Amino acid sequence: MSMINNTGSGITIPGTSSHFLDPAGSRDQGQGRLRYLTGGSGAPLVMLHTVRTQAEHFRHLIPLVQQRYTVYALDLPGMGYSQIVPGASYDEPAMRAAVKRLITQLDLHEVTLLGESMGAVLALTTAADLPDRVQRVVAINAYDYAGGIARSSLLARLIVTGVIAPGVGPVLARLEPKPVMRAILAGGLADPAALREDYLDELLDVGRHPGYPTVARAVYRSLPSLVAARARYPKVTAPVHLIYGEKDWSRLSDRQANRRQLPNAEYTQIPDAGHFISLERPDVPADLLNTVT
Q1: Cα–Cα distance for residue pair 3/38, rounded to 1 Å
Q2: What backbone phi and psi angles, to 5 degrees, belong to 56?
């Protein structure tokens, strides 16, 4: 494990530092070096971000839970400041392997996993694989249904469809005009003001990393693997709390399907909230985490 003081990120979260987890063996080489933010004190809380974001997605949530938890906010492979490895897989099993690597390489126990969107799926599937290490899962707006971000707006549907298309896809993936990115992300918020300019700038800066457009295309193309991962949910033995924004992209049928897959899970729906709960209502998961006995 190595630590750095400056990842290049323009966002600072008080009380956290940035670390890198180097590959421990040949099977980790495909994921490369993973970056994570850590800080706080107490039991380990691993945070897993959404599609096309990074650890700073939890910038408002981390300060609310640092007094009770030691936070580990991971940049998933190829995203944020984790290494971009040519030819790497971004299917759900590969990303889940990176989460498991963080937990096992740091030898974390009694872990609470909190994930949002894609991260919620990974939190659930990781818990299924590591029952002896994971003691609780908080899954926010799990992105495990067909359509996903394309449901947020016509613009998002056109952009995502174009990015994954052959031929024109690589060109579109390299072009991320700020107004377009703002509009797409705002489609996941009930309150567009929750999308701060410095966070938008940070995501755009990361999007200019060499090789990142290839990662973005691969992640969007891997979304069906998140849907397939639902088959692993019944294997989760840890307590689960499902959180959905009232205005999330998921439909009632999607949410009911997950409640059937996880019949013992607790369930919270947040009024007037969208897909990116950690940006617009971080108080809700924070209160849930801090009041657990």
Answers
A1: 11
A2: -65, -5
